[in-house]
Design a protein that fits this description.
- With 333 residues, the chain is of the alpha+beta class.
- It has 2 domains: 69 residues; 229 residues, Phosphatase 2c, domain 1.
- The chain has 7 helices and 12 strands.
- The strands form 3 sheets. Strands 1-12-9-6-7 form a 5-stranded antiparallel sheet, with helices on one face. A 5-stranded antiparallel sheet has the order 2-3-4-5-8.
- Strand 4 and strand 5 form a beta hairpin.
């Protein structure tokens, strides 16, 4: 009856039982209506509160999972960084220091700037009597893959020169090519073939004869003489990717007392930067060396470092960088 009366009141219909103004039915009617409305409101709010609570609980759980995953990732990243730092110390122990290099060439510098913690660029120096071998190489990639490749390359080169007594630069490159082919061209269990290689330059300095022999794979050798730059080009045959065994060229030149030699990887010249965000390029690099070659070696290194930092600006480093400069007849330190 109450619902019927409410419906009639809401629709403007006159109820069969006439309710006087003073009748207690109207109070009961309004009270019932108010209770019903309050009940419906409280019920809807309760439902909303339950839904909100469930949503908050889910978000809190998701947040806890995110924080847990973040913590796990931070631990993994820290472990990886620690491992890379340890690998860097191992690589540094294998690469001769600048002070060690100056035991052979008093006037020399090594500008070495890995992109990551470890490097795919590497260099080496060794002596047999009065003959000195200098190697600079750029392995496929950078970071960990490049660093692993560099260690393999160093092992083959040292063995070839010191144990097998091979002293012709072009022959050493041929043996290195076969060694890398044998190591990386084997078909693995996953059915793929690993193809990796390196660009390299190898100098042999004979102080007694004042002569240099050079062989390169995509690595040029720059010789500064009488304010002019002479380029000795390497062969376009990547080490480790020359399956036909095409021979490498052995260049020979006489040396003068004031000659300066430069070996370098392509990381410096290929770096993007400048106002138009372009590559530094070989042309600028040759001009830079022509400008600074008469500076003391320590100043040359500083200029190379400052110049590339200015060129890069906010542009990230794209590859490992290496520039080695030395006077081949400067004598030992």
């Amino acid at each position: 009856m109450i619902l019927i009366a409410v419906a009639q009141v809401m629709t403007g219909m006159q109820p069969e039982m006439r309710l006087s103004t003073a009748s207690p039915y109207r109070f009961i009617l309004y009270s019932a209506l108010l209770i019903a409305l309050v009940y419906l409101f409280v019920k809807s709010q309760t439902i909303n509160l339950v839904k909100t609570r469930k949503l908050l609980d889910k978000k809190e759980h998701d947040l806890e999972q995110v924080e847990k995953q973040k913590s796990e990732l931070e631990i993994r990243e820290r472990n990886i960084t620690d491992s890379l730092n340890y690998a860097q110390r191992i690589q540094e122990a294998l690469l001769p220091s600048e002070e060690y290099f100056r035991r052979y060439f008093r006037e020399s510098f090594i500008f070495f700037k890995p992109k990551d913690i470890v490097s795919g660029d590497f260099y080496w120096i060794g002596e047999k009597g009065e003959r000195i071998f200098i190697v600079a190489a750029d392995c496929t990639g950078h970071g960990v893959p490049g660093a692993l490749m560099s260690m393999i390359g160093l092992e083959i080169i040292e063995k070839t020169i010191n144990e097998d007594n091979i002293d012709i630069p072009a022959s050493i490159l041929a043996i290195l090519n076969k060694g890398l082919e044998k190591t990386f061209s084997r078909e693995k269990n996953i059915g793929t073939i690993i193809r990796d290689g390196m660009d390299i330059g190898l100098c042999l300095i004979d102080r007694n004869k004042k002569k240099i022999e050079y062989a390169g794979a995509f690595f040029p050798l720059y010789l500064m003489r009488d304010n002019s730059l002479i380029e000795i080009k390497g062969d376009k045959l990547i080490i480790g990717m020359n399956p036909s065994g095409a021979p490498y060229t052995n260049h020979e030149m006489e040396l003068l007392d004031d000659d300066i030699l430069y070996l370098f990887s392509d990381g410096y010249v290929d770096q993007f930067g400048g106002s138009e965000n372009k590559k530094f390029m070989y042309r600028r690099f040759r001009y830079l060396l022509t400008t600074i070659h008469h500076f003391p070696v320590s100043d040359q290194k500083s200029v190379l470092d400052e110049n590339i930092r200015t060129w890069m600006g906010n542009t990230p480093q794209l590859d490992d960088m290496m520039v080695i400069g030395f006077k081949p007849l400067s004598g030992k330190n």
